[in-house]
Amino acid sequence: MQYLVDGHIPALELEIGFITDGSxxxxxxxNFPSWGFAVNAYNLQSPHLGYAGAARIFYDxxxxxxxxxxxxxxxxAAYIEKPFDLENNFHNSAIGSxxxxxxxxxxxxxxxxxxxxxxKPGIGIHHFSNGAMTLPNTGxxxxxxxxxxxxxxxxxxxxxxxxxxxxxxxxxFLVGSSFGAKQIPPIGSKRYGVANLFGIWQKRISKKxxxxxxxxxxxxxxxxxxxxxxxxxxxxxxxxxxxYIAGLYELNFDPIAIRLQVGSYIFPNFDADGMIFFRYHxxxxxxxxxxxxxxxxxFAKADNIEIGLAYKLK
Length: 314
Known about the structure:
Blueprint (H helix, E strand, L loop, with lengths): L10 E9 L5 H5 L4 E10 L7 E12 L6 E12 L18 E11 L1 E2 L4 E13 L10 E12 L20 E12 L7 E14 L4 E12 L20 E13 L2 E11 L9 E10 L3 E10 L2 E12 L2
Antiparallel strand pairs: 1-2, 2-3, 3-4, 4-5, 5-7, 6-7, 7-8, 9-10, 9-16, 10-11, 11-12, 12-13, 13-14, 14-15, 15-16
């Protein structure tokens, strides 16, 4: 896809953030992070891609006590001006839809200019993908050099950090399901449903983190129709079922959590995707229920976007 790149990409980012006030335990555990909303505008420097915009919710996590180094994670939606079109834009082999998922990750330093102004130089990556909902979907990855000026009318002072002991919690069991859809080659073909039925055991081990494991069954209606290289589609519905096991790690910002998973299929009939998969979920928790959305991939190749629901057993 080298011909899609005509030069370095200028971009503008604006954000509004809120410094946590210490009213919740995780505020202290993360050294009073910020959260908020960011919008971006990009000139993708290609007549086949055009302009792009993105809107995300983000969490800005200090990595040191003096907040001189931080990590910012964002999740949201993006708009691409010129997606693939068979008649008018067939050179765009990267993205097949206007609306896409937008992921952002950046590492930055923090330089104090005054009581109300900060300078945050950093590096990062912005990723756009539609999760194979509409082909093509090789995705767009932008390596970023960033320079952010931050202003706070009340300054950047935070409350005194309280080091309270973490009360041990018991593990919990959840059951649930998730759903998605995807398209497979050739471009313009029908979409196929994707579903998962799973059970999760997880345990909160600190104010920040939780670990666990998931055992489930994946149904992907496209697998029996997949042609992979010289191997033709099997047309066997049994190929659509894949049992799996996965480990998980959660960062908790009660009631929201970011859940990261890496897993493996268990003796699948269809193994052309490889045995390893990754999942990235944004989770909203109540006392008994969890609602989540996110992306599943096989290494750097997106497989499908999914939306799910889980229930915590007594």
